[in-house]
Design a protein that fits this description.
Helices cover 45% and strands 7% of the residues. The chain is built from 14 helices and six strands. Helix 3 packs parallel to helix 5, helix 7 runs antiparallel to helix 10 and helix 11 crosses helix 14. It starts with 12 loop residues before the first strand and ends in a 5-residue tail after the last strand. The protein folds into three domains: 149 residues, Ribonuclease H-like superfamily/Ribonuclease H (Nucleotidyltransferase, domain 5, 2-Layer Sandwich); 86 residues, Orthogonal Bundle (DNA polymerase, domain 1); 81 residues, DNA polymerase, domain 1 (Orthogonal Bundle), CATH 1.10.150. It is flat, with a radius of gyration of 25 Å. The chain is mostly helical. The strands form three sheets. It has a two-stranded antiparallel sheet.
Length: 358
């Protein structure tokens, strides 16, 4: 549960193998979770999750590391043609033919006692997962797609993904300006808010909304009394302790150094109007090829690779190397170089090779 706290509140842990499953109450008086945490970070034990981002964040907060190696069934589903964010219920239905009872889905897991239906629902997460995992693993082996997931699994297991460095909190915000002094104030304000939220264990937005931080950074108040006129703050900030700490963070703020200045957002690099149309054609090709291969498009292409390819970039693009080249990159390159085109035959969209005259 994390609606009212800065740190996610660990309320229940479910563990399962092919032989047994259990639920652990981390809120039980006197319980020692140390043996469990040691198990979760043992490198010789493979850990299986579904959409495990929040689970991994909790383990990182408790141990300072992540439970590698891991296998995330939602990520694996991308390579098996089940979409980019397939839900656990749909995955269980697709592979096991079981309809999960969703009646206890909105349980307040922090309340005690939990009834039998709630516990059965919770343990169902891992009993089905223990059955699901080997089936998905076998299909990945048969299709030779296990290696396709390496980058995604490594990204999920990277501890840096879950570290909340107060000095980097500003990088998650929408920038109100590209001026060094404004960004320096934003960095200081974001750091102040992060520390306040941690200290009070409340969500960041309960302290100050993102938009208000941006407004203050762009138009800083000259005195604490001016905080009463800032949209998004109450009049009490004009003379209370939290308002004083906000103002002190502004006083200490230094302009962002040249090394810290964020890179400018790439604007569809060098794309002319025709280039933008080529990028749109690449998206159509990606849709066709991903459907044919039965793999989620996001697993093939990330970020602005299609725009870069349309603009003439060739070096450093993952789609032009490895398995991505075979499934999509080669055809994408042929399309932008005029060696491949779209055709309609019998009412069906097809790709056709174009023979270039010497």
């Amino acid at each position: 549960m994390r609606e009212t706290t800065y740190f996610p509140d660990l309320c229940l842990v479910q563990l399962g193998t092919s032989e047994e499953a259990c639920a652990i109450d981390p809120k039980a008086p006197g319980i020692d979770l140390e043996p469990l945490l040691k198990l979760l970070v043992r490198e010789e034990v493979l850990k299986v999750f579904h959409a495990g981002g929040q689970d991994l964040e909790i383990i990182y907060n408790l141990t300072g590391t992540t439970p590698a190696p891991l296998f995330d069934t939602q990520i694996a589903a991308m390579a098996l043609g089940l979409g980019e964010q397939v839900g656990y219920t749909n995955l269980v239905a697709a592979y096991l033919g079981i309809q999960v009872d969703k009646g206890a889905r909105f349980t307040d897991w922090a309340r005690r006692p939990l009834n039998d239906r709630q516990l059965d629902y919770a343990i169902g997460d891992v009993t089905h997962l223990a059955t699901l995992f080997p089936k998905m693993l076998e299909k990945l082996r048969k299709t030779g797609r296990g290696g396709w997931l390496d980058d995604e699994m490594a990204r999920a297991a990277d501890p840096a993904t879950y570290a909340n460095d107060p000095d980097k909190a500003w990088t998650r915000l929408r920038l109100p300006s590209r001026k060094a002094d404004v960004l320096g104030r934003l960095k200081a304000l974001a750091r102040w808010r992060e520390l306040e939220a941690r200290d009070k264990d409340v969500p960041r937005g309960r302290i100050v909304k993102d938009e208000t931080l941006g407004d203050i950074a762009a138009s800083p108040p000259r005195a604490q009394a001016d905080l009463a006129r800032v949209r998004g703050l109450s009049a009490a900030w004009a003379n209370n302790g939290i308002g004083d700490r906000l103002m002190r963070s502004l006083v200490d703020a230094a302009p962002l150094s040249p090394d810290e200045m964020p890179a400018r957002e790439p604007q569809r690099p060098g794309l002319s109007t025709d280039g933008a149309l080529v990028a749109d054609l690449l998206k159509l090709l990606l849709k066709i090829r991903s459907k044919e291969a039965g793999v989620a498009p996001r697993l093939i292409v990330r970020g602005d690779e299609l725009d870069a390819l349309a603009a003439g970039v060739r070096d450093g693009l993952p789609i032009l190397t490895g398995w991505r080249h075979g499934i999509f990159g080669a055809d994408a390159l042929a399309l932008v170089e005029g060696r491949l085109g779209f055709a309609v035959k019998n009412g069906k969209l097809m790709m056709s090779e174009i023979v270039l005259e010497p």
